Amino acid sequence: MLQQTYASWRELLDNKSDPRVADWLFMSSPAPTIVICLCYVYSVKVLLPKFMQDRKPYKLRKTIVVYNLLQAMFSFYLFIEEGRISWLRHYNWRCQSVDFSNDELAMRMVRGCWWYYFSKFTEFFDTFFFVLRKRYDQVSTLHVIHHGIMPFSVWWGVKFMPGGHSTFFAFLNTFVHIVMYTYYMLAAIGPEMQRYLWWKKYLTILQMVQFAVVFIHAFQLLFSNPCNYPIAFVYWILAHSVLFLFLFGGFYKDTYVKNNKRKQAICDMNGNAVKNHKIYQESNNNSQIKKFN
């Protein structure tokens, strides 16, 4: 039974995957990606917090500014490259199959997919910096889940379908990351930039819109699939879109909706307190006047 399962597994990896990426870094098996993701989760939830327990927060302002600038530039390169070879020129937005040839455009797409996969590892430094600065409130469940499963998720796409319909997610995601890392870079510069960062709330909305658009783009293939794109990958994209839309929606509700209600309640309480204080003062003054008269 185990031998048969292993044989089927090897058959899948060796004969059903894209041979063009067989010898590329981390592409022979999902094991390296899984190990790196597990090490990431262990590091940010256990190892680094323990390391920082008796230490003062590190001041990493310049490092973080440079890191976010490089991430924004990396995302910009991926967005432009993928747009030029696919979604802004040659791809069909309705349904797009994968070009498994060794043509120049096809190989550029494969390389772009791999670099997008690699970018999911560079994003781990977001969390490392949070922990080293003791900003534990930012190491949320959403944050860790999002970063922890994305490399593993993207690996399957690069291994089996490096191109075609599912790359729309990467195309849209790199654009969102240009905006996101630009915001992070400006925020890291210092308090003097806060006046220009009023749009933080809309960055979260942009991320939710991203997952909604990706969901719709993939969902249409369940009804009409003229390019015969593998339905298994359609379901994979739909599942991720729903998961992250749910998680980001919860984050938006907790961060903006509930906080706004809480602030409004505090304002109402303070307003009533001031009003009651004024009434008390007026009543006390009237009593003093009557007593004097």
UniProtKB/TrEMBL annotation:
Broadest EC class? transferase
Q: Name one GO biological process term.
A: very long-chain fatty acid biosynthetic process
Identification of the protein by name: Elongation of very long chain fatty acids protein
**Sorted alphabetically, which keywords does the UniProt record give?**
Fatty acid biosynthesis, Fatty acid metabolism, Lipid biosynthesis, Lipid metabolism, Membrane, Transferase, Transmembrane, Transmembrane helix
Task: Look up and give the organism this protein is from.
Answer: Polypedilum vanderplanki
Membrane topology, as annotated, equals: Multi-pass membrane protein
Q: Which PANTHER family match?
A: ELONGATION OF VERY LONG CHAIN FATTY ACIDS PROTEIN 7 (PTHR11157:SF69), FATTY ACID ACYL TRANSFERASE-RELATED (PTHR11157)
Q: One Pfam family, short name please?
A: ELO
